[in-house]
Amino acid sequence: MKKFYSLLSVMLLTVLISACGTTTNESENTNDLPTTEATENGQSQNNSTSSTEPQQVLEGTTTESESQNYSITVVEGFELTGEEPNKDLLFNKENDLQSMRIETFNKEEVNLEETTNNLMETLKASNEEGTLEEITDENQLPASDTIQQAKGFQIDTPDGKVTGYTFETDGLIVKLTIFDTADTPALETFIQMAGTIKSK
User: Fold this and answer.
1) DSSP H or E run through 89
2) What DSSP assignment string belongs to 140-198?
3) Pick from 176, 166, 154, 155: nearest CA to 113
4) Do 159 and 96 touch, CB atoms closer than 8 A?
């Protein structure tokens, strides 16, 4: 009888050890599976995450034009001032050769195509011997949730590049003329600020 109990104890102990070993292996294998899937699907998971990230907000001061029906976020080191009726100038306080002329019009009163043609003539007048080039890189165009039909053009002048943009946003037709310098250009900053233009 003792032998029977001993044999039974050994069998039970063997079963328990086997069961523990199986559970451990299954647990380890289970832990490995998500890691493998995460590695294989990491690219798509990262893409889906980035596509839902909110658009970065430009840090600066929301400033309203005194003579036109718009506001714009002005970053530190820049200042918005009235240049003449219905024209404002946003300039770099450390280098006033870098500036952006802002003109806005009511969408119901002005045609975007005509405004774009007018912009092109303005740019050509800044250097009659230069070649006007259209900007096709979307990263070099003002962008926001409300900006539509943005067009950009650029021309070289002896003093630096002159860049112009037209677009529709928030019920406004916007015309921008940017004067920049070759030394430490500020065009990218102007483009970011232009993307914050909206009606008051």
Assistant:
1) strand 87-92
2) GS---SS-EEEEEEEEEETTEEEEEEEEEETTEEEEEEEE--SSS--HHHHHHHHTT-B
3) 166
4) no
SS3 98: strand
pTM: 0.72
Residues 6+ apart with CB under 8 A from 96: none
- Where does residue 160 rank: exposed (0-12), middle (13-18), buried (19+ CB within 10 A)? middle
Q: Note the pLDDT tens digit of each residue in 141-188.
A: 999 999 999 999 999 998 889 999 999 999 999 999 999 998 889 999
Phi, psi at residue 15, to the nearest 5°? Answer: -65, -40
DSSP helix/strand/coil, 27: helix
Return the structure tokens found at 159. 């003093």
- Cβ–Cβ < 8 Å for 178, 163: yes
